[in-house]
């Protein structure tokens, strides 16, 4: 980790894209556009639940549970190529492991924000005419549900500040 981005206010190296176009293209090539869109929908749904549980564990200062949830979230982000979310989850995991709860709270807020951005970008996967209508609808439904859940989960974190 370089000193340029390793400070408390910078959790992602400069120039890291939200999504890995290469990873998404590899998945699409290996399976199909429709399945990629479905995987993105499952990712959004899964991460929404993980963020809720992670937020709860952080608010209770339960390092073991928080570490488990953020580690699983980090792996899910890496698998789909959600690079910035992966990098933020890595930082959050480091803060939890050091019991640095102030930095953990800050990193969790950034994680929620980055997830909102990733969710928007993943939502575009089914809109370029290559994905099926049902897969696009499924992603839109997952985004709507995750947006509502993420807002609800972010509220306790905001109240702690």
Can you walk through the features of this model?
It is built from six helices and no strands. The chain is mainly α. It has a single domain, classed as Up-down Bundle (Four Helix Bundle (Hemerythrin (Met), subunit A)), CATH 1.20.120.
Care to give the gist of this entry?
With 161 residues, this protein is mainly alpha-helical. The chain has helices at residues 21-30, 33-59, 63-80, 83-97, 101-123, 133-160.
How do the strands and helices of this protein lay out in sequence?
Layout lengths: L20 H10 L2 H27 L3 H18 L2 H15 L3 H23 L9 H28 L1
Helix pairs in contact: 1-2, 2-3, 2-5, 2-6, 3-4, 4-5, 5-6
Helix content: over 70%
Q: Mean pLDDT, nearest integer? A: 80
What is the CA–CA distance across the termini? 28 Å
CATH class: Mainly Alpha
If classified by CATH, what would the architecture be?
A: Up-down Bundle
Tags for this entry?
161 residues; mainly alpha; Four Helix Bundle (Hemerythrin (Met), subunit A); single chain; 6 helices; 75% helix; disordered C terminus; disordered N terminus
């Amino acid at each position: 980790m370089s000193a340029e981005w390793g400070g408390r206010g910078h959790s992602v190296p400069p120039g890291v894209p939200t999504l890995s176009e290469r990873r998404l293209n590899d998945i699409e090539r290996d399976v199909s556009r429709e399945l990629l869109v479905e995987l993105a929908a499952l990712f959004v749904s899964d991460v929404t639940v993980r963020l809720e549980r992670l937020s709860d564990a952080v608010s209770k200062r339960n390092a073991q549970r928080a570490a488990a949830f953020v580690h699983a979230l980090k792996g899910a982000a890496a698998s789909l190529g959600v690079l910035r979310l992966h990098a933020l989850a890595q930082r959050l995991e480091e803060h939890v492991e050091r019991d640095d709860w102030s930095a953990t709270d800050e990193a969790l807020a950034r994680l929620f924000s980055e997830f909102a951005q990733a969710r928007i970008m993943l939502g575009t996967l089914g809109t370029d005419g290559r994905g099926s209508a049902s897969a696009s609808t499924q992603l839109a439904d997952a985004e709507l549900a995750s947006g509502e859940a993420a807002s609800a989960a972010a509220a306790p974190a905001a109240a702690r500040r």
